[in-house]
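Report of the visiting student (M.T.), summer placement. My assignment was to run the structure pipeline on a short list of targets and document each run. The first record concerns WD repeat-containing protein 54 beta-propeller domain-containing protein.
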Amino acid sequence: MYHKEKSIQIKNSASALYNNLGVLRIAPRSLTYFTVVHANVVNMVSASWDGLNYSHRQLQSKEPNVATSTSLIMQAAFCALPSRDLLVVTSQKGIQIYESDGSTMVYWHALDTPDTPTGDSSGSILVFDVPSKGSNITLSDVLKGHKKSITDIASECSGSQLLSAAEDSLVRVWHLSIKPESLSVEVAHLHNECVTDTQICGAKFCDGDGYAFAVTGYDLSEIIRYSQS
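After the run finished, the structure tokens were exported:
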């Protein structure tokens, strides 16, 4: 089972955005990066695995020919590529791409219209079987674990565990397995956590094995963490 650990303080509270929590593990340096969006700023925290050292950085939205942009940031997400890790920030005016530690912006692309995130308002999670090649994608399962809109979904590295969060203040952990005879996905519920009186904005696993996960909520100035005991 999971238990609550010491929270990580951030510079600003979290905006009420879906998927408003980014987590990236840097194993060679024993660090974990966290990102939380507030209005036109990305709050970034670098946390050591022993919980002794934290460093903070703030990234602001950009737009052409403007010294200080007020363009709202819609999402900040880490992108793990085979050759490098990047932090991608999407605002109402453009897409900013940074090195994973937020130190250097390596690319900026203007957007003509805002890129607004959407989610499943029914609270259902759709599970699809996706082949390694071709377009023969089929709906495998519909999970009914939440009563209100889904705000975030994440999986750990192996893909055997799924984390879901919703506006019903619930965070659920699911186990995914492949049926050998049909190669279809089978899903089982593992854990349920109620984050009381919190509008959950983001939820992510903090490691590759699903041992710990983190949650952020609207107007909270902390990142709530849970780990298995």
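The domain at 2-228 is CATH 2.115.10 (Tachylectin-2; Chain A). The chain has one domain: 2-228. I thank the supervising group for their guidance throughout the placement.
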